[in-house]
Write a structure and sequence with these properties.
The protein is mainly alpha-helical and 269 residues long. It contains 13 helices and no strands. The two termini are 33 Å apart.
């Protein structure tokens, strides 16, 4: 739940930079708190039904591709210029050692954040990967999502190279797509942790469910934004949970691990 709220905190903290038309471009003004709460409220309601979650998942992908095409057209980018910038993506892998080392506080922050996310992502993915081979799962998680990201940053790099501004409609379009992504991220994770806690609409009713999630997540978002909570703390707890789980598997349930076969059949107790 705290990891989910951290997404809201990042959204709130960086909103002034993405909507410079509101405020001074640096300060989190009251309007941004309202927008953040409404986003969390929308995601809380969306999580009440899996059909909304699926709709947003597909919808966010489509609007992202639409944004890429729209930004391409707005820049007047030719096909050859697009190929030239896309080809530069390969340079990232040739210089990846410069991004990996030396390890800094930047790396530390993201490593703890990824650890914090990993439990939820693992649970979420495990619900939808039945029958996939390992290489197919790897492609689904890393290869296919990287394609639209590569296209997106290739277009943005063209803006950078040619000094093309994004003020006005392009900036608002990016903001709207970003909000859709945040809602989609929230509703998927809300759906996951409420199922784990048996905090469902069937048990407590839709209104109580939506308000409890929205208010609880917004309060945690404010705690992160004010530095009362740190994502590094959450990541450390997750690492501890992993160590305990591994210890339990290898020292308490070791005989079950020996009984695993290629079909993941586990011997009965």
């Amino acid at each position: 739940i705290t990891t989910c709220a951290f997404t809201g905190a990042l959204f709130l903290i960086y909103m002034p930079y993405y909507i410079p038309e509101m405020g001074d471009g640096e300060t989190v003004i009251p309007a941004f708190y309202v927008i953040c709460f409404l986003v969390i409220l929308t995601a809380s309601y969306s999580s009440t039904d899996i059909k909304y979650v699926k709709f947003l998942s597909v919808g966010s992908t489509l609007v992202f591709f639409a944004l890429i095409i729209g930004m391409w057209i707005n820049a007047g980018m030719s096909g050859g210029e697009f190929v030239d910038t896309v080809s530069l993506v390969g340079g990232y892998f040739g210089n990846i050692h410069k991004f990996v080392i030396p390890l800094t506080e930047y790396h530390e922050f993201y490593l703890f954040w990824w650890f914090a996310w990993s439990i939820m992502i693992g649970q979420f993915v495990s619900r939808f990967v039945g029958g996939l081979k390992t290489w197919q799962l790897l492609a689904s998680l890393l290869v296919f999502p990287s394609i639209p990201l590569g296209l997106w940053f290739s277009v943005l790099y063209y803006y950078h190279l040619n000094g093309i501004g994004t003020a006005g409609f392009p900036n608002w379009a990016m903001t709207i797509v970003g909000i859709v992504f945040v809602i989609n991220s929230f509703d998927s994770l809300i759906r996951l942790y409420t199922d784990n806690l048996n905090f469902t609409t069937e048990r407590f009713g839709t209104v109580s469910y939506v308000l409890a999630n929205a208010i609880g997540l917004f309060v945690l978002t404010l705690l992160f934004q004010s530095q009362w909570l740190q994502i590094q703390w959450v990541g450390t707890i997750v690492i501890g949970i992993y160590l305990l789980a591994l210890g339990y598997m290898f020292f308490v349930k070791r005989r079950h691990l020996h009984g695993l076969d290629g079909n993941a059949n586990i011997p009965a107790e």
